[in-house]
Amino acid sequence: MIGAPHPLLSTVAEPVDPTDPDVVAAAADLLATLRGETSTTGLAAPQIGLSWRLIAFDAGAHPRSRSWAGELVVANPRLATASHWDHGREGCASIQGLTADVLRATRITVHGHLPGSGETVTIEADAFEARCIQHQLDHLDGLLFLDRVPGALSLHRRLHSCDA
After folding, report:
1. C-alpha–C-alpha distance, residues 148 and 158, integer Å
2. What is the pLDDT of residues 99-126, one digit of tens each?
3. Confidence tier at 62 by pLDDT (50, 70, 90)
4. How far is CA 154 from the centre of its chain?
5. Distances, alpha carbon 6 to alpha carbons 33, 34, 49, 59, 131, in Å
6. Residue 150: φ, ψ to 5°
7. Are 93 and 34 in contact (CB under 8 A)?
8. What are the distances in angstroms from CA 59 to CA 16, 39, 63, 110, 120?
9. CB proximity list for 49: less than 8 A, separation 6 or greater
10. Which residues are CB-contacts of 58 (< 8 A; sequence separation ≥ 6)?
């Protein structure tokens, strides 16, 4: 897992061919890494050293989750709609010890492709799952949650593993 301030975390990731065997292997690695990070609900390829537009998430077990798309890896995800904005606490596997209050949409629609088949997928998410997905999309654009914090008063020390 790559930690800040690694330059890959501030680089815009490249689109991928979801049917490419290297992308399929990276998707499996991303999912395996996510499964190994028990307090993490999502990961993006840049966090494992790949500047590719590939995310994995599974927010179903989080106590603030309402929607659940399942355990998914999505290639070339793009945010199609976003509405109902609210502040919520976020943390990141690439930034140890800090959380922050971040403004995000609580309802989103994302389009992308499934690695392997290349099949188009549409995800409609709300509440915590929407926050998790937007956090991963930011990673693909070279942004960390700290880039969305208005000031130091929004930062908090991470107290326990259930912080987003």
Report:
1. 17
2. 999 999 999 999 999 999 999 999 999 9
3. low
4. 20
5. 18, 19, 10, 26, 23
6. -70, -20
7. no
8. 24, 10, 9, 15, 21
9. 2, 8
10. 34, 41, 42, 70, 71, 72
DSSP code string of 16-79: --TTSHHHHHHHHHHHHHHHH-TT-SEEEGGGGT--BSEEEE--TTSTT------SEEEEEEEE
The pTM of the full predicted model, rounded to 2 decimals, is 0.90
Return the structure tokens found at 71.
Answer: 């355990």
Q: What is the mean pLDDT of residues 80-91?
A: 94
Give dist(CA 141, CA 64) in Å, integer.
25
Contacts of 72 (CB under 8 A, 6+ apart): 56, 57, 58, 121, 123
Dump pLDDT digits (tens) for 140-149.
Answer: 999 999 898 8
Helix (H, G, I), strand (E, B) or coil at 125: strand
